[in-house]
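Please decode residue identities from the backbone states below.
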């Protein structure tokens, strides 16, 4: 069942400006974690602010938990929407202890107990009397998370929650936050410009570009079947190879690819593929070959840069144990590529 739905939501800050959000419609399922991605200025923060009630759209409808919260001039005030928010800088109150931070916004009565329970839930056990500056970045973020979820919001919105953490910490925190959110069963939307965050943490990803929603789907589909070149390139560069189609396959500057699909095309095409969609094979002479220009070792894998006689280059990903010593050329095949008629 969907808990949040947006219908044709549009927002412009100033008349002379471009739309920050342009005709955006989508739904979020109950208990789902949705990542909102897109380059800087694509409208991610604006979209969260519209849902939270910190901005009002020019047109469109938003409903939360079966209630219409925005339509025309109707707007349920932010504090009545039951939306939890975690901001990029955590926005903790520096002069309050972490317990007081979490109690803020809770109704008196059982606030103390509720705040303590929530702090424990996010993995902070004894530091209740500490002040935010006495905590690490990762711990401060958990306090911010506890403060946002303690009042039992219908949905949790997080703006760039991982961007202030260093790379090593980030992998760990990301997984912990995912587990906490899943444990509480809360529906969450988090904004990120990091594709790794989105691919590994979200149930689904929505990608924005210039205020337009480009695609919304599970990570695998966005990565493997992007709807357009913008989405494809957002999730990592693709290799490009020029090819001439024939009855049996494609002629490329790296060799011939057997593919009966080629006869569907009548003029020059581009073959597009990610480094992991190729495989380096043992013997030179099979399928495609290139001159080995560079091997880059990454621990978990190696990247092999191969060039044709005209100086075009492709990158193929291969396992880390493979040795290329003494080899000048390498053969490879492609097990997946998109064909684009772009000439
Ligand atoms: P993102 O979070 O993806 O970086 P934003 O939602 O912050 O993008 O911004 C989307 C667009 O709206 C940008 O062009 C930005 O300059 C503009 N914008 C955002 N906030 C305001 C504001 N308060 N006043 C005017 N323009 C704004
Ligand atoms: Mg932003």
């Amino acid at each position: 069942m969907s808990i949040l739905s947006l219908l044709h939501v549009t927002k412009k800050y100033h008349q002379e400006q471009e739309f920050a959000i342009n005709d955006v419609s989508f739904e979020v399922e109950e208990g789902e974690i949705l990542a909102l991605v897109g380059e800087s200025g694509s409208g991610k923060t604006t979209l969260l602010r519209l849902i939270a009630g910190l901005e009002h759209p020019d047109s469109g409808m938003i409903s939360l938990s079966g209630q219409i919260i925005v339509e025309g001039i109707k707007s349920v005030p932010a504090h009545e929407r039951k939306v939890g928010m975690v901001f990029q800088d955590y926005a903790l109150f520096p002069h309050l202890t972490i317990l007081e931070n979490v109690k803020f916004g809770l109704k008196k009565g059982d606030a103390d107990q509720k705040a303590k329970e929530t702090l424990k839930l996010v993995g902070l056990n004894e530091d209740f009397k500490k002040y935010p500056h006495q905590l690490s970045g990762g711990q401060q973020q958990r306090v911010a998370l506890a403060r946002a979820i303690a009042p039992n919001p219908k949905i949790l919105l997080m703006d760039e929650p991982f961007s202030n953490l260093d790379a090593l910490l980030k992998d760990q925190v990301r997984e912990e936050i995912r587990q906490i959110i899943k444990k509480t069963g809360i529906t969450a939307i988090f904004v990120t410009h990091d594709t790794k965050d989105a691919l590994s943490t979200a149930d689904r990803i929505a990608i924005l570009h210039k205020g337009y929603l480009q695609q919304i789907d599970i990570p695998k589909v966005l990565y493997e079947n992007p709807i357009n070149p913008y989405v494809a390139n957002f999730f990592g560069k693709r290799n490009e190879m020029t090819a001439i189609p024939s009855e049996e396959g494609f002629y490329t500057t790296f060799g011939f690819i057997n593919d009966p699909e080629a006869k569907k095309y009548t003029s020059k095409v581009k073959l597009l593929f990610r480094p992991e969609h190729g495989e380096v094979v043992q013997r030179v002479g099979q399928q495609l070959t290139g001159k080995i220009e560079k091997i880059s070792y990454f621990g978990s894998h190696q990247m092999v840069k191969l060039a044709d006689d005209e100086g075009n280059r492709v990158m193929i990903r291969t396992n880390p144990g493979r040795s290329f010593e003494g080899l000048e050329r390498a053969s490879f095949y492609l097990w997946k590529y998109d064909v684009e008629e772009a000439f």
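Observation: The longest helix spans residues 167-184.
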